[in-house]
Every structure is written in C-alpha cells, then in structure tokens.
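Hey, I'm writing a tutorial for new members on how sequence and structure tokens pair up, and I'd like a real worked example in the thread rather than a made-up one. If someone can provide the structure for the chain below, I'll link this post from the tutorial.
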Amino acid sequence: MKTAHITATLFVSLNVLMCILLGWAKKDSRNVATRMRGRDAVVLAKSPSSKAVVVLELPDYGNTRVVAARVEESDVLRLKDAANGNVMAALVPPKVLVNADSVTVEVSGVTEKARGLRYDRVLETGFGDRISVYMSIAAIAATVNESVYVWWHECLDRSEHHAELCLHEINMHVKWPANLHVLSKKDFDKETASLPEITYNAGGLLPSNQAFDGVYTTAWKTMRLPGMLTQPHKRSFEKSYRQVCKELRFRNVEGNGVPEIGYTVLHVRGGDKRKGLHEFNTVSVLQQLPPGTILVVVTDEPKYCAEILREYHLRQHNASLQIVQLSVVETNNSKSIAKQNKLLHDFTVLLGADAIIQHSPYAWSAFSNTASMIRQVPLLSTWKSNAATPSTQKYIGLLAVLQQEEDCPPEFFSSNRPSEVARFMETTFVKKHKARAGAA
C-alpha cells in the first residue's frame, strides 16, 4: 500500500483543536487502513493513486470550515496550510473525531470521485457580478443539500479588467461557502465531467442577464436543477441564500483607515459607468445624513469622486460629515498586488457598513449591490435617471426591472422619491441609533 503523511500542528488553549477527517466517495470504510502516532486518531482516506484525498473540518472563527487537499505520497501537510489546498466536496459518514499531533494514512485503491453538481459557465465579468452569481449557485445547490462546482476564469496577460484576479490569489483571501467549490478550468473539466449540470439560459427559465442570476429574488428563476431533484421555490431559495452568505468570509485582506463599526459607505462608480452629476442627487442625500456620520468613500475613479465631495462642501458649509477617503491605488497593471488588495479591501468595507449610498447609473453596480445583499446592508441609489422629467416611481433603472419581474430586494432603495429617502434614513440611522443606545 502507498502511504501519505499528514502532520497536524495543533495550538492548544483550554480546548484542544479538533479536526474531522472523513472518507471520499463511497461510505464503505473496509478498504481503509490507518496507523497512528502521538495521540489517538482515526483517519479515513481513499485514492486510486499516489495521492491521498483527505478532508479536514476545521473550526474557524466560531464556524466550521471544510477543506480538502490531495496529498502526494510521503508529503507532509500542515493543518494551517490545508485551507489553501485543492478544495473538494466534503462527503458523508463515517465520521470520527480526531485529536492528533500527526497521523499516517494508508490509502486504498478505491476510485476517487467528486460528488455534487456542476455549473459550467464563462463569467468574464467584474468581481461583484461573479460573486453574486456564485452565491446564487451555492444557494440553489443548498436547497437540495448538494455541493456544487464552478470554475474561475484564467488570468489573461493583457487584461485590464479587475475580473481577472487569479484563482490562487482569490483563494488566499476568500473562504467560500462549504458547499461551493471554485476550481480552475482545467481541474473543473477533469474532475466534474460526469457530474449532473445545473442548467441556465434554457427554455422556461429567466435569462441569465440584467443581474437576474445574481439577485436572490430572481436568481432561482434563472437556473434548473438536474434530473429528479426538487426545483426550488422562492422561499426555500432565499432561506438557502441567507445561509451560504453567512458562510462567505474574507481573510488576510490588507487595508487602512476604516472604523470597526458604525460607518456609512459612499460608493462612487466611475470608469465606464461615469455619468454627469446632474443625473444624480448624491449631494442632496449626503446633506440629509445625520451630523457626525462617518462616511467612508469607496471609488474606482478618485477624480470623479472628488467633484461630488467638492460640491457637497460648497453646499454644506458646516461640513457635518466625518469623511474618510480610503487610499487609492491607480495603476495600469491590473494584476498588481496593491490593486488586488484594494479591490478586496473595498468589498470587505462594503460588507461591514451600516448603510451604503451608491452613485452609479441605472441604479446598479454589482460591486455594492452584491455586498448589500450578502450582509443585508441597506443601499440607497442616488441615480434619478437621465430623462428630462425624472420618474417618481418607487424604483427606477434596474431596480424597477427586478421589481417588475419578481421583487426588488428590500435592501435596495431609490432616492428619486423623497419618501423613499426618508424611509432609508429611518431604517438605517434612526432605528440603529435607538438599538445601540438601548444596548449601551
């Protein structure tokens, strides 16, 4: 038999760190042999080759993180490194708690096989769009307690788009939901070819465009589970969406100057979405924020953003907001570490906000709208349309399209109607201020 070594470096406080290692593919443990060193340990692993597939379940900030890695024969894999291994699906019993310093696993000749569903789709889109779709895919798979595999687009040498963050860089910073496995295209094709497909852009489904596939109120209508699996309804999908979003975490993201709690984000979307300031009422909204509000500015075009803040200061002579402008990294190299860190940092800033004020045309930017949905952060769009006579409808732009098709998520507000601005202020600031005062 071939042998792989796993060394577990455990840090012990009052409680001993525990991990669970469980079998791959078949549930039958008769083909597994295990030798132990140090403390008592039982490990189940199966593989057809010199690579042992081991599944590690690790406590992580009070949550459970499941990772898996292929371990070459005679390799040593430390637990702290396993999180960056080749992530695979965690399967079912037998499960045995392990309390070990190190173990030696002898692997058998059982065929290794991924289980779950696959979603084979090119997503050459922005970071926000991609994360929004992945959360929807994880959610629909979760409605039937399945794992799902997707693939991250390869880096392109000449790409100027932040969507081209490399997979290994993303996996350094993103902890995906437990049932979502993001692979390279090569690994995806190799390991999931026999898995049943989640269907999209097919007859009877809502098209996977206009953000329908990334918004939880409509995404369940854009995809179909395979075979005899029960198709989700809106309520079950939204429940699963909430669960997978709770599991999404970002780690080792460098940043600066952001309060831990109690701030509002102004997200100004420029670049290819830059429009005249007359199409927005951003300054008017900023003037209505409570005095002393900490406003953290996130933008992809600082010069454009500066025009908005300059107009605010001209109108608001007492400068009642505490404005925090994040350091901006401008570079032509879209793959620079600095720019990648800024992108991920800005997204985590949005996730941690009390509220988001969004300056983006057509009442949409997937970057901030997705963060709003993931953490249920109220978001107010300041776009009032480019029409000569602005609409007085409750929703405009893409938010109106979502509302017409199914429902606009309750996290989203349009500022074109004064009553909606007032409702946003009440929801975001008055209620939260009362809640914090009560807690104090």
